[in-house]
Amino acid sequence: MAANILNCSKLASINPINLGLIEKVPGFVELLGVHIFGHGYRRSKFLVMPQRGFKWMQYCVRAFHYANSEDFGYDGVIGPVHWGERYQECRGKHQSPIDINVLRVKQVALPDITFIGFDDSIDDVHVTNNGHTVLIEVENEPHPRVSGGPLDGDYIFSQMHFHWGDNDTFGSEDKINHRSFPMELHMVFFKEEYKTPNDAVRHSDGLAVLAFFYELDRHQHPAYDDITSALSNVTEPHTSVVMNHPFSFLNILPYDLNRYFTYRGSLTTPPCSEVVIWLDFEQPVRLAHDQIEVFRELRSATGKIRHNFRPIQPIGDRVVFYNIDNKYFSYNEVDDPNEDIPKRKKGHNNSYGLVCSVYTVLSLIIINVSLL
């Protein structure tokens, strides 16, 4: 089998247009066979049994495309440093992930996010090891959706996946004040008006990603039991399983969904398309070490996926916004026509005013105590 794969690798030098001829013109097999196996191919059994030779060549095409699906990774010559050699947009100026400096964010009070279908019990949930991460997808309609916040329109759920590190000290993609978390969840949504995820990635506002960080807890999170159980059945790459029980999005998320950072960025895997509105929620999800360790047992074509996060990218000229909980605080924002965050809600007080208010209250308390 190893020799076959080695021979099939020569298909990489063939024009993809010619590959299509294999499916349409069986007589093309002989010419292609000479290219792959050398002139000794003419004396092989494939000329005696042309149909078998045709099937063999079809296998080679499938093997080539399978190998081509593993065209990026996180180490060596297919690691993030080399992604830009094949995917030009990976060298773009608005790439993700980024390191968010909370002292440089711009505080805003955006409209509330509407989460539709997040508390539904969803059947037929598929868990897949795609060789890079684990994907969770739903088949049943309608899919969960989100709107509000920095989003202009409705965004429909496409899939969710995870990023993790070799140990519990790092693994998230975005960082907060240089802090890395052991794992990060990405819930990917596409804009409804673009109909499909494939069409959405052609538009600058095509995707929204809700990102959630994880941190360690001494206790296990019961809502993750079904996920970790499913992972034990998809340790090998390109395997899939259906969850045994109904699944609710809301159960696996943190309680506070009001405070988050948002910015314009990209996919964190090739082709690195700069079409993503990111929402990084501030409150982490707490998992036990054993629950995170299960993810590190998943395998790719080259071994265990011990880490699958992209290094930090330059923030460049971008502004990161921080949405405060507008049920408690409200900040006055000065509109900047060059900043593209829609539907900003006006408030009445800025952060300086808040500090002054707290100072005033404390002063009154001190005065009252002194008069007693």
Automatic annotation (TrEMBL):
It comes from the Eukaryota. Its EC number is 4.2.1.1. Transmembrane segments: none annotated. Keywords: Glycoprotein, Metal-binding, Zinc. Residues 70-324 form the Alpha-carbonic anhydrase domain. It holds the Pfam family Carb_anhydrase. One of its GO terms (cellular component) is cytoplasm. Gene3D superfamilies: Alpha carbonic anhydrase. GO terms for molecular function: carbonate dehydratase activity; zinc ion binding. PROSITE patterns: ALPHA_CA_2. Belongs to the alpha-carbonic anhydrase family. This is carbonic anhydrase. It comes from Papilio machaon. The lineage of its organism: Eukaryota, Metazoa, Ecdysozoa, Arthropoda, Hexapoda.
